[in-house]
Specification:
By secondary structure, the protein is α/β, with parallel strands linked by helices. The chain has one domain (19-232): Undecaprenyl pyrophosphate synthetase, CATH 3.40.1180. 41% of the residues lie in helices and 15% in strands. It contains seven helices and six strands; from the N terminus they run βααβαβαβααββα. It has helices at residues 27-33, 38-59, 78-102, 117-130, 147-160, 169-173, 221-232, and strands spanning 19-23, 63-70, 104-109, 137-145, 186-189, 208-211. A six-stranded parallel beta sheet has the order 3-4-2-1-5-6, with helices on both faces. Helix 4 (117-130) links the parallel strand 3 (104-109) and strand 4. It is globular. It starts with 18 loop residues before the first strand and ends in a 10-residue tail after the last helix. The relative contact order is 0.19. Bound molecules: farnesyl diphosphate. Farnesyl diphosphate (FPP) binds at residues 24-29, 42, 45-46, 49, 66, 68, 73, 84, 87-88, 91, 141, 191.
């Protein structure tokens, strides 16, 4: 039996997370341990993402958001950057073929303007299929994403909008990449580090965090079960008393 309650769904008094976010960390170390190039770790990490996304869909998780490439990741070697972009391209090409069958919507969150024309074209195609799917699960891939960058962009977009409302938390949320989505209930970071690394800074204000030493390529459905079980044991107070 799963170590958590699969019957509980989002909503009042129920606790299956609606939105899970993951910092996919540990790919490089996973590869190094095997004497492989770091890029092999990212390829294994992309496979893990495919498996975890299907599992989340089967569980009925509505949103899965993963950190695929940060605004800081450009500092890595040209070879590593190009390998990650290649994996994204492959994933998007596959998605164009398989999305209807797999019934998972895909969104890219981040500043995509600096990506190659080919990648931007694929993103546009994937996101246009997305609107025709009757899916209960959405996978968000954060690419050239940074939490601080996102907030600055949102403020600028709000400022430039002639129809803007009074500046409130709810109003600014409309200008974030995640506009219209619920905040993540649970943020998972495998790979042994316990920090946020500029991921979903605004949205994770009241998220529960789950850290594990498992390296991302080794992360399995059982690790996801353990993360959800841990989440279900928390007492979410949102700053109040319960
Ligand atoms: C962090 O591990 C991981 C990344 C910077 C890249 C993650 C990208 C992928 C898993 C591929 C993206 C493609 C799809 C389709 C999701 P690290 O390299 O910092 O690991 P380390 O801490 O062990 O060095």
């Amino acid at each position: 039996m799963a170590p958590f309650d699969k019957q509980k769904t989002a909503g009042q008094g129920t606790v299956l997370p609606r939105h899970i976010a993951i910092i996919m960390d540990g790919n490089g170390r996973w590869a190094q341990k095997r004497g492989l190039p770091r890029t092999a770790g990212h390829a294994a990490g992309a496979e893990t993402f495919r498996r975890v996304a299907s599992y989340c869909r089967d569980l009925g998780i509505e949103y899965l958001t993963v950190y695929a490439f940060s605004t800081e990741n450009w500092k890595r070697s040209a070879e590593e950057v190009s390998a990650i972009m290649g994996l994204l391209k492959k994933y998007l090409e596959e998605a164009i073929e398989k999305m209807r069958r797999e019934n998972v919507r895909i969104r890219i969150l981040g500043d995509t303007s600096v990506l190659s024309g080919e990648l931007r074209g694929l993103i546009e195609r994937v996101e246009s299929i997305d609107s025709t799917l009757d899916s209960h699960t959405q996978a968000n891939l954060c690419v050239n994403y940074g939490g601080r960058d996102e907030i600055i962009r949102a403020v600028k977009a709000w400022q430039a909008d002639p129809d803007r409302g009074e500046l409130t938390e709810r109003e600014l949320s409309k200008y974030l990449y995640t506009a219209g989505m619920p905040d993540p209930d649970l943020v998972i970071r495998p790979g042994g580090e316990e920090r946020v690394s500029n991921f979903l800074l605004w949205q994770s204000a009241y998220s529960e965090f789950y850290f594990t030493d498992t390296l991302w390529p080794d992360f399995t459905e059982r690790d996801m079960d353990a993360a959800i079980a841990s989440y279900q044991s928390r007492n979410r107070r949102y700053g109040g008393v319960k």
